[in-house]
Design a protein that fits this description.
35% of the residues are buried. 31% of the residues lie in helices and 18% in strands. The protein has 3 domains: 75-105 and 119-190, 3-Layer(aba) Sandwich (Rossmann fold); 213-466, pyruvate-formate lyase- activating enzyme, CATH 3.80.30.20; 470-541, Beta Barrel (OB fold (Dihydrolipoamide Acetyltransferase, E2P)). It is globular and about 85 Å long. The chain has a 5-stranded mixed β-barrel. A 3-stranded parallel beta sheet has the order 3-4-5, with helices on both faces. Helix 8 (243-255) runs parallel beside helix 9 and helix 13 (401-414) runs parallel beside helix 15. The protein has 15 helices and 22 strands. Its cofactor is [4Fe-4S] cluster. Belongs to the methylthiotransferase family. MiaB subfamily.
Amino acid sequence: DCKFERTPRYCSNAANTGVTSRESRTSVLLDKFRTQLSSGPGFQDFITGVSVNKSNVTAGGEDSEKHAYLSEDLGMYFETYGCQMNVNDTEIAWSILEKKGYQRTADLTEVQEKAEQTIWNRLQQLTAMKKKRLKSHAPMKIGILGCMAERLKTELLEREKLVDVLAGPDAYRDLPRLLTVADGGHQASNVLLSLEETYADIMPVHYVPQGNSAFVSIMRGCDNMCSYCIVPFTRGRERSRPVSSILEEIRMLSDQGVKEVTLLGQNVNSYRDMSEEQFYGSDMTKLSRGFKTVYQTKQGGLRFSDLLDQVSRIDPDMRIRFTSPHPKDFPDEVLHLIAERGNICKQIHLPAQSGSNQVLKAMRRGYTREAYLDLVENVRRIIPEVSLSSDFISGFCGETEDDHQQTLSLIREVGYNVGFLFAYSLRKKTHAYHRLQDDVPAEVKQRRLEECISVFREEAVRVNTALIGSTQLVLVEGESKRSAKDLCGRTDGNMKVIFPKDNVALEPAESQTGPINAGDYVLVKILSATSQSLRGQVLSHGSLRSK
């Protein structure tokens, strides 16, 4: 086999029959070339502004981790759009850059308004700002991180020329180098996906204004390959973060006074830690009854129920949520654990996507309407007070009017507290893009979406009205957006509750009162309900332990 080394190496299949005079001359020339190469300039000699002390450049030595090419006093400003995973990605990226000497700024002083509609609009604004800034300030660089960077690389770099740096979800460790390349006047990108990257050794810098809640990434990527979904192509295959790293981060958050942690993953409940030999085993992954996958059943590993068990024991006064799960990964042991632990929220997201078996098959969801409803029944049997939320897509490829009516009937039959509903939008690279026809007209998609939203709201009002008269433990988030006289917070079931900003009893049946602050638990009696929120009166302060 041929091996590439620092010096030239010739490969040949011919037998070595002796050293000829020609080979001797070649050997002399090679020795001369090696001498010139070893005494010539190295890579760092070609980097502007770097002073090289060759005696300190050692492979694997102390100085090998220093990045002399990084400029000093660099400012970094982040804006985050999209899902919670993007929020967590920002925290990871900032942790990496902070260690390299970057300073984070809270705002751009030249910008007076928030982004209007889309990231594209915002990029146009930032590009205009960048051109003005060149005349009076240090150069400004624009970068995009995450899924959009991977999916729209060509458009962002070549067609629109709006960004200097692109980093995909698995390339954040490369950000210091990419920024240095951009600082030299070149566009820089790394959107390569990894089968292993989990950022397990990176402690995210949580940048939450209230500081009462945080997101913790436990796995990345997805193996489900639903036909409409771009995630496997933008975030890669599933890989789980080691449990020890997750527990360390959550202990740190508990010490900081965080009251609620949401475990994050594209398929969060398919978590499977194989980082230690002791986790290997022959046990096959258990699925919800009646569900199947497009991939072979996985074997061994520390599963989601094991992680949830350990996480919930860290701080009994810290709420634990998780998102976004797949309905296939709710075996009974997960449901029983949720029912038993007081600090694991009794709220489960069950993305249905459609109520039609024909559409579910086209989506490659791995279940039927009947299996989904059986799961809902099982969830409510084990967790009687559970709140359910779901995702629905209107107008998927081939969806008929009858398919749409079946989706409406599913929404009515289940009755969700919260829903996320969208009109189908075709994504490149997906199975649907290559194999299916996006044949539902845009106006039909929109009409069906509006009907789904209408039915969902009707059912949400019914479900939420049933809570009137009950007392709910609410984690206070802060002042209500609509009135400075009110506070808002969320129930265990993730419903928003609005209530007056009054001093209340520090404990139930006590006369001593105190103010309510963000991060407090309070007991609220529910007085009215809409499809989106509850309104009530605070009775007293409370806690998860006294729940």
